[in-house]
Specification:
There is one protein chain. This protein is of the alpha+beta class. The protein folds into 2 domains: 1-35, Ubiquitin Ligase Nedd4, Chain: W, CATH 2.20.70.10; 38-194, Nucleoside Triphosphate Pyrophosphohydrolase (Alpha-Beta Complex). 25% of the residues lie in helices and 33% in strands. It is built from 3 helices and 11 strands; from the N terminus they run βββββββαβββαβα. It has helices spanning 78-90, 149-164, 176-194, and strands spanning 11-14, 23-26, 32-33, 38-47, 50-56, 65-66, 69-71, 94-105, 110-119, 130-136, 170-173. Strand 1 and strand 2 form a beta hairpin. The protein is globular, with a radius of gyration of 19 Å. The N and C termini lie far apart (47 Å). One of its GO terms (molecular function) is ADP-ribose diphosphatase activity. It is an enzyme of class 3 (hydrolase). InterPro entries: NUDIX_hydrolase-like_dom_sf, NUDIX_hydrolase_dom, Nudix_N.
Length: 195
């Protein structure tokens, strides 16, 4: 940040009194601007032993598969945001939602939060950010074509819990090395599938 968004004065990037890290500070008013993680919220939507998956129609990861999810908006609860993203990306309503996974992705300043929910009714379809929305069983999911490592991690927890017959809340930390390794593994699986 070069200029204060409130008054237009230049900002300085320094450690404010009583703090332990550098922040953008308005040189005119002394207002401190904090850069905090962004929340990505979404749902693992269940229906008849299948999961609602969306193929992305936008970058990043255009054409890859994901769960319906996106950034939480101001004024929403985490659940409201997850339900909204499911409506926007998969034209689906959800019910009986339970918090399922919270995954810290600190190297990109995000927290990914997923609910496990039931499809309300039977309607779903591709929203504006999706090429297609499908209900898929575990063996129909193209694991090497998942858009993000957090989707892989959340689904891995989901299917392991389902096999155990007991769902629990999962917390994870996907650091830069984990993220990079999962991407390398996905590239290797894609190459194997194409050969």
């Amino acid at each position: 940040m070069t200029y204060c968004p409130n008054c237009g004065a230049p900002t300085e990037f320094k450690i404010p009194a009583g703090d332990d890290r550098k922040r953008n500070i308005c040189t005119a008013t002394g207002e401190i601007f904090y850069d905090n993680p962004r929340n990505v919220v979404g749902c693992i939507v269940e229906h008849e032993d299948k999961i609602l998956m969306c193929r992305r129609a936008i970058e990043p990861r255009l054409g890859f598969w994901t769960l319906p999810a996106g950034f939480l908006e101001l004024g929403e609860t985490i659940y409201q945001g997850a339900a909204r993203e499911t409506r926007e990306e998969a034209q689906a309503e959800v019910r009986d939602a339970e918090l399922f996974a919270m995954i810290d992705v600190t190297h990109i300043g995000q927290v990914h939060i997923f609910y496990r929910a039931k499809l309300a009714g039977s309607h779903y379809g591709a929203g504006q950010e999706s090429q297609i929305a499908l209900l898929q069983s575990e063996d129909e999911i193209e694991w090497s074509q998942l858009a993000f490592p957090t989707i892989h991690r959340a689904l891995s927890h989901y299917f392991a819990d389902r096999a155990r017959g007991r769902f629990e809340l999962h917390t994870d930390d996907l650091g830069a090395d984990d993220w990079r390794q999962m991407n390398l593994d996905r590239v290797a699986r894609t190459a194997d599938e194409q050969s």
